[in-house]
Specification:
Strand order of the largest sheet: 1-2
Distance between the termini: 78 Å
Strand content: 5-15%
Order of helices and strands: EEEEHHH
Mean pLDDT: 84
Number of helices: 3
Shape: flat
Low-confidence stretches: none
Number of strands: 4
Length: 110
């Protein structure tokens, strides 16, 4: 095993780190999830493996997969309602009017 070193600010030198420092002495095991009834298809899901198979079979995902993404998107949505946050309301209104006019033209053609 290679020797690892750490900078000591007091001595201003590199010092070897003992193997016992910062090393886990055992395994870290995450427990399995308890069984539950699927709200999607009513089947019983037994553990993580069964949950992965259930999600794949039903083309769904866990809300926990998007936790950080939802937080970021919530900040973006909040910006739309904050004056001076960089959202140009005049430009948005112009695009909405253009889309409305385009839809009206399509309806007139029919």
């Amino acid at each position: 095993m290679r020797t690892r070193y750490r900078w000591n600010p007091e001595t201003q030198r590199q010092e070897p780190i003992a193997q016992s420092e910062g090393m886990n002495s055992g395994l870290i095991i995450m427990p399995d999830i308890p069984d539950f009834v699927s709200p999607v298809d009513g089947s019983i899901v037994h553990g993580r493996r069964s949950l992965r198979e259930h999600n794949k079979r039903n083309n769904v995902t866990n809300a926990a997969d998007y936790t950080n993404e939802w937080k970021e998107k919530a900040k973006e949505r909040a910006k739309a309602f904050t004056p001076g946050a960089g959202y140009d309301s005049k430009r948005r209104i112009m695009h909405l009017r253009e889309a409305y006019d385009k839809l009206q033209q399509q309806r007139r053609r029919k």
